[in-house]
Design a protein that fits this description.
The complex is a heterodimer of chains A (56) and B (149).
Chain A (H helix, E strand, L loop, with lengths): L9 E7 L2 E6 L9 H17 L6
Antiparallel strand pairs in A: 1-2
Chain B lengths: L7 E4 L4 E8 L2 E13 L4 E8 L18 H18 L4 E4 L4 H13 L1 H7 E7 L2 E4 L8 E6 L3
Parallel strand pairs in B: 4-5
Antiparallel strand pairs in B: 1-2, 2-3, 3-4, 5-8, 6-7, 6-8
Classes of the chains: A alpha+beta (56), B alpha+beta (149).
Chain lengths: 56, 149
């Protein structure tokens, strides 16, 4: 994939495993994305019920 | 087992990752996000999905079926590693939006279990308790944690 065609502003590029990772300032927070909010709320409810696993 | 994987973009705080699935249904933008659920212990929720090209928001329960499932999941696994390295290897909570998607994650963990357990502790929740992940057992949810080697 030619990542340059995605028009993201590159701040850093590095090798990861078999591919490349590019750190981009253009990727904005999705903390308020309804899907993300729902998933986090569900996770909190789950851990309230199930408790946290022990660190192994 | 060596899967191909997609290159990806990471946000500057390493909490959001974007990559593009390529297949018969075209080029589909995918996103993985990590949001904190608790501080003690440090637990983050992994949210994964397609991006709505119109709104830029993540799509719930979308099945893109682009013929590249293993590549997509290997890429998601790469983001788990990347995120873990930047956040002191916290617990990462993983559950699908649907039961079938949770099963898909389970099958994926099973497929690369040997490789995963070299670097991660994987626990599954079933029958009201957490246990070390076992193959051929159905779990409600998973927590993975990169080992502090």
């Amino acid at each position: 994939m030619d990542m340059s065609e995605n028009k993201k502003h590159t701040t850093e590029e590095r090798q990861i495993f078999g591919g490349r990772a590019i750190v981009s300032k253009e990727i904005k927070s999705h903390s308020n994305d309804p899907f993300v909010v729902k998933k986090v709320e569900e996770a909190k409810a789950f851990f309230k019920r199930a408790g946290f696993p022990k660190v192994k | 087992m060596n899967f191909n994987r997609y290159n990806y973009f990471a946000s500057i705080d390493y909490k959001i990752y974007v990559f593009y699935s390529e297949g018969p249904k075209g080029r589909i933008e995918k996103m993985v996000t990590y949001e904190k659920v608790d501080d003690n212990p440090a637990v983050y929720n992994l949210a994964f999905g397609d991006i709505d090209p119109t709104t830029g928001l993540m799509l719930d329960r979308n099945v893109s079926d682009n013929g590249d499932r293993d590549i997509v999941l290997a890429t998601v696994a790469d983001t788990v590693s990347d995120f873990s390295d930047h956040y002191n290897k916290p617990m990462i909570y993983i559950v699908g939006s649907t039961l079938s998607r949770t099963r898909l994650y389970q099958m994926s963990i099973t497929k690369i279990y040997k490789e995963i357990t070299r670097f991660y502790t994987v626990q599954g929740y079933r029958e009201s308790q957490w246990e070390i992940f076992q193959k051929n057992v159905n779990y409600e949810a998973f927590v993975v944690q990169k080992k502090k080697i």
